[in-house]
Amino acid sequence: MRKIIHVDMDCFYAAVEMRDNPQLRDIPIAIGGSRERRGVISTANYPARKFGVRSAMPTGMALKLCPHLRLLPGRFDAYKEASAQIRDIF
């Protein structure tokens, strides 16, 4: 019998970044594209969410809400590796 399991990993990209760099845990961070290139936020950690920063928000708007937001580019190889480690559990 085939099983389907849904695992919701909240702010996953940000969680991987904070795992790899613990200094990021208590500051507002977001993963996304640059303001100059009209980027969009992929995800934000909880300190950033307290300022209203959300997924799919234009980066420029996120930086207006949280001027000290630390914007990180996506590291998709790291996210794929972390995702594979989690899938191995199941």
TrEMBL record:
Question: Which cell locations does it reside in?
Answer: Cytoplasm
Q: Name one GO molecular function term.
A: DNA-directed DNA polymerase activity
Name any cofactors this protein relies on. Mg(2+)
A UniProt-annotated Pfam family: IMS
GO annotation, cellular component aspect: cytosol
Q: What residue stretches are annotated with the UmuC domain?
A: 4-90
Q: Which UniProt keywords apply?
A: Cytoplasm, DNA damage, DNA repair, DNA replication, DNA-binding, DNA-directed DNA polymerase, Magnesium, Metal-binding, Mutator protein, Nucleotidyltransferase, Transferase
Q: Where primarily located? A: cytoplasm
Belongs to which family? Belongs to the DNA polymerase type-Y family.
- For this entry, the protein name equals DNA-directed DNA polymerase
Q: Which organism is it from?
A: Enterobacter agglomerans
Q: What is the lineage of its organism?
A: Bacteria, Pseudomonadati, Pseudomonadota, Gammaproteobacteria, Enterobacterales
